[in-house]
Design brief:
single chain; mainly alpha; 3 helical TM bundles of succinate and fumarate reductases; 4 helices; 0% strand
């Protein structure tokens, strides 16, 4: 019996379907947020700081903006983690990039939430 090619070895954490679904769900949440924000912006009246502050001072808008921030951070994490796993082969470098990405995303999300709740 002759075998052609190499035997396929599957490695990684097998996140496939869960990550694919997470990317679609978070993208949908971001798209819905964009529509809600566009509706708020397209209402008649001048678009200045007072209007922006008014839009984001409403509690329901803060809640969906918080959901957007969390969705965006998770969406970015899944994408970057997959890039690091696919293209960075040295384990130490990949681990350092994973840690840097997590710290950066948590920091950005924390800063965005702090700005949101100051309004």
């Amino acid at each position: 019996m002759t075998t052609f090619g190499s035997k396929r070895v599957v490695t990684g954490a097998s996140y496939g379907l869960r990550d694919w679904l997470a990317q679609r769900v978070t993208a949908l949440l971001m798209a819905l947020f964009t529509i809600v924000l566009l509706v708020q912006i397209l209402l008649p009246g001048p678009l200045g700081y007072d209007r922006w502050a008014g839009i984001f001072s409403q509690q329901w808008m803060k809640v969906i903006t918080f959901a957007l921030i969390v969705s965006l951070a998770y969406h970015a994490w899944v994408g970057m983690r997959d890039i690091w796993m696919d293209y960075v082969k040295p384990v130490g470098v990949r681990l350092a990039l994973h840690i840097f990405t997590l710290v950066w995303l948590v920091g950005c999300a924390g800063w965005a939430i702090q700005v949101l709740w100051r309004l």
